[in-house]
Amino acid sequence: MAVEPQTARALIHSVFDLQRTLRCVAHEHKSTNVGSAEAGVLRMISEVGGRAVHIAEKLSVSAPVLSRHVAELEERGLVARTPDPEDRRAQLLELTEAGKAKLAEIEEARTALLLDFLAGWDEEEAAACGDSIRRLTDTLRTAGHRAAAPLVHGRDPQKEEPLAAR
Prior knowledge:
- The protein is mainly α.
- The protein has a domain at 31-119: Winged helix-like DNA-binding domain superfamily/Winged helix DNA-binding domain (Arc Repressor Mutant, subunit A).
- It contains 6 helices and 3 strands; from the N terminus they run ααβααββαα.
């Protein structure tokens, strides 16, 4: 059975409420001197590494936004930039040893905090919630990539006629 509009609307409200709550919790319980955005950049560099442009794409931010975060992290000795040997205009990003240690500290602090908050949950409930969040994220990410699919040779890959003809 298809999802009803009121269910989709309620899900949107729940997701936005979760985002607001996470921001508030992160702000109130900031145990490290790294903000949420910078922590996300550290995590993505750790997971993906490589070219800055690919990391920006994965984070869904512009190159200038990522560059500002990286500059702050680099200044603090958490990230290192090196020229890409295949394209000297591009940069490769990697965590320094201090960056790896800081990311581990951040993740340990967040895990401890969430474990405290989830004291009334059991393992099954937490795992089911994680599965649902991952599925929703994957669905939205896939739909977003499809909607933002690049044009191929001046044609919309979804249609047969050239864009100029429309």
